[in-house]
Specification:
Layout: H1 2-6, H2 9-77, H3 82-85, H4 93-103, H5 112-118, E1 124-127, E2 132-133, H6 137-155, H7 159-168, H8 172-196, E3 206-209, H9 225-241, H10 244-259, H11 265-291, H12 298-305
Antiparallel strand pairs: 1-2, 1-3
The chain binds zinc ion.
């Protein structure tokens, strides 16, 4: 069960290292900003002290980052999908490995669309009238359940809640009962609050859109922002030095220039990057599943999606598609 939800021990190890590396980088930036702000106000009196602190901090953070990155590179090398990722020109396993570790296990994404959505590359329906997410039926209920669960998960570990629990006393039965009651209450409140943030218009005006922060005021994003930012960095690398995916980027760009000639060049670039990343992710999904011996490919997707199935860029054949073929090649 754990394997199904969280991935193999090796994948969890990669995830732990990736997130640690991310934390160190974040910490370094935050500390740098804090020091800069302090120096701006008190540079005259503390200039030398602050400069020494900055140098020391950079050296230490740099060492820590390099150590974690070295462990991470080794850990990524042991992932089955790395055999394919290593061949993809333009990105090192240092970028794609963490993506795989954090997204794992691949078995939990039944379709390419589910994989896209988890990285913020799916499509959401929004209402133009109220500028909110529009969800109905089962999807709406599932979204609200997830929201309330996540918000409770955050609240139950807060100082505020822990202080409330402490005030209940030492009787374990009473503590358990208190927590249970608080959970029911908290979730009911959050459910109501979240519901108000979804479109409930009588006559909604709908439009399909890429997930965009402005539609999520206060809602917990339905995708993992870490994965989305990794995808964005991967896109940058492909545009700079990718071969296969860079070529597709150029093709998409040309297509958008022809189909939307009035669109500013920046938007066209964004759209082309987005299409390129989606293509890469669909290949990663397929090759990763193959590496794990899971069903993938056109016939499998047709079965899974039934009527919803349509030909899309999933079926641009991945480069190095034979990476995991066991049969030796005929001479
Ligand atoms: Zn609406």
């Amino acid at each position: 069960m754990e394997r199904e939800l969280k991935g193999s021990a090796q994948e969890q190890y990669v995830r732990m290292l990736s997130k640690s590396l991310d934390s160190v980088q974040r910490m370094r930036i935050q500390m740098g900003n804090r020091i800069k702000a302090f120096k701006k106000n008190h540079g005259e009196d503390y200039g030398e002290l602050v400069d020494a602190l900055t140098t020391r901090m950079w050296d230490q953070a740099d060492l820590m980052e390099r150590n974690i990155a070295a462990d991470l590179a080794k850990a990524v090398a042991a992932l089955p999908v790395t055999k394919w990722l290593e061949q993809v020109k333009g990105i090192g396993a240092r970028l794609s490995g963490p993506l795989a570790g954090v997204a794992a296990p691949i078995g939990k994404y039944r379709t390419v669309s589910a994989f896209w959505s988890s990285m913020g590359y799916g499509v959401v329906t929004v209402c133009v009238e109220c500028v909110n997410l529009h969800l109905v039926g089962k999807e709406r209920r599932r979204f609200l359940d997830r929201q309330t669960q996540r918000r409770w998960d955050i609240y139950k570990t807060s100082d505020n809640f822990e202080a409330r629990v402490e005030r209940v006393g030492d009787d374990p039965d009473r503590v358990v009962a208190f927590i249970r009651e608080a959970m029911v209450e908290h979730r009911a409140e959050e459910y109501e609050k979240s519901e108000k943030q979804l479109c409930s218009c009588e006559a909604p005006v709908l439009k399909k859109s890429a997930p965009n922060l402005k539609y999520y005021g206060g809602l917990i994003l339905p995708y993992d922002p870490y994965l989305k930012s990794m995808c964005w960095r991967i896109a940058g690398q492909f545009v700079r030095q990718g071969e296969f995916y860079r070529e597709w980027y150029d093709r998409y760009k040309e297509r958008y220039q022809l189909s939307c000639p009035d669109l500013p060049i920046g938007h066209i670039d964004n759209r082309a990057r987005r299409a390129m990343v989606k293509l890469f992710l669909s290949h990663l999904w397929e090759m990763w599943r193959k590496a794990e011996g899971l069903p993938a490919g056109r016939t499998y997707l047709q079965e899974q999606l039934g009527e919803k199935y349509s030909e899309n860029h999933t079926f641009i054949e991945p480069p190095y598609a034979d990476t995991f073929d066991k049969k030796p090649k005929q001479p």
